Amino acid sequence: MTRGLPTMTAPSEPNYMEKPNSILLLSALIFLAAGLSAQIDTPTVSPASDVRDLYRRAAASEYVVTGTVTGSRVVFRRTPQGDVAALRAAIDTGGEGQEFTVSVDKVLCQQSDFAPSPKSSDTLKQEVKIFVPKTGPHFSGPYREEYLIRGERYLLFLTPLSESQKALWASSLELDPDSRYFRTLEYSRRAIALASDPILKGPPIFEKVTKLCEAVRPTAVSDKLAALHRLENSGDAVLAKEAKAAAEGLMPSNRK
Questions:
Q1: Under 8 Å CB-to-CB from 214, ≥6 apart: which residues?
Q2: Strand, coil or helix: what is 192?
Q3: Kind of pairing, strands 97-110 and 127-133?
Q4: In a designed cystine with 231, which of 80, 136, 153, 243 is the match (CB 3.0 to 4.6 A)?
C-alpha cells in the first residue's frame, strides 16, 4: 500500500486585530527587556538610600505621595481605524511609552507647603496616572529610568505634565486627553519602591522625606519655621541640611 504524502498547510498570517491581549503582552515584554538589557555593566545608585537634595526634590514636585500601582499598559501611536499595516508598524516599535495607574494612599506634602504664602492646590484624586515616554536613554548617569511594577508600593515625587505637552502627546499617542498625567522626573530618584505593608519601616529616604514634609505642613510660616528648626537641631546631619534649606526657602527674599 502506498502512503500519501502528508498534507502541508501554509502558515497563516498573524491577525493583529483579533489578538490584542497577546500583542499587548509581547509589547510590554519588549519594553521591559529593552530597559533590562541597558542595565548591563551600568553602575546604579539605590534610590532608597539616596537622601541628597530632598528639599529640592520635594519643593519641585507638585505632590509627594505614597501609593500602589494598580494598573499598567503599553502606550502605542494612534493609527487609523482598521488600518492593519499602520497598527502592525505601531506594534513593531514596542510602544511609545508606559502608562501606570496608581492608587494614592497618602499625600505627604505638596509644593505649596514649601511657600511662605501657600496657594490653594487642586485636590489630588485618589487614583493618578503616570506616563513614562520612551524618548530618552534608559540611564542618566547612575540612575536608571523609572519603571513601576503592578502591585508594588512607591514613594512618588509627582510633577504634572503641562497642558501643551499633554495635548501634543494625546494627539499622536493613545493617551486620554481628558485625564491628568504626572511624571516622576529625574529617573528613579523620584519613584522609590517601598514595602507593600505600610506598617513596615521604610527606607532611609522615606523616613527623612516624611519628617521634612511633616515640618512644612502647618499653615502658619512661624509654625513651619519652628518645626524646621527642630529638625536642624535633631542631630541628623541630612535632615539638618535639608531643613535649613527649606527654612531659607520660606524667606520671601530668597524666593524668585
A1: 108, 109, 227
A2: strand
A3: antiparallel
A4: 243
How many beta carbons lie within 10 A of that of residue 7, not counting itself? Answer: 5
d(CA 246, CA 55): 6
In CATH, the number for domain 50-74+100-248 is 2.40.50.120
Beta-carbon contacts of 34 under 8 Å, excluding residues fewer than 6 positions away, are 94, 138
Residue 227 near residue 218 (C-beta atoms within 8 A): yes
Q: What cell does 60 get?
A: 519641585
Please report, for the chain, the start and end positions of each structural domain, with discontinuous segments joined by +.
50-74+100-248
Q: pTM of the entire structure?
A: 0.75
pLDDT digits (tens, 9 = 90+) for 192-240: 989 877 777 789 999 999 999 999 999 999 999 999 999 999 999 999 9
Angstrom distance (rounded) from CA 228 to CA 250: 11
Q: Are 109 and 64 spatial neighbours (Cβ–Cβ below 8 Å)?
A: yes
Q: Which residue has the cell 492593519?
A: 84
Residue whose C-alpha cell is 509654625: 223
Nearest to 59 by CA among 210, 213, 215, 220: 213
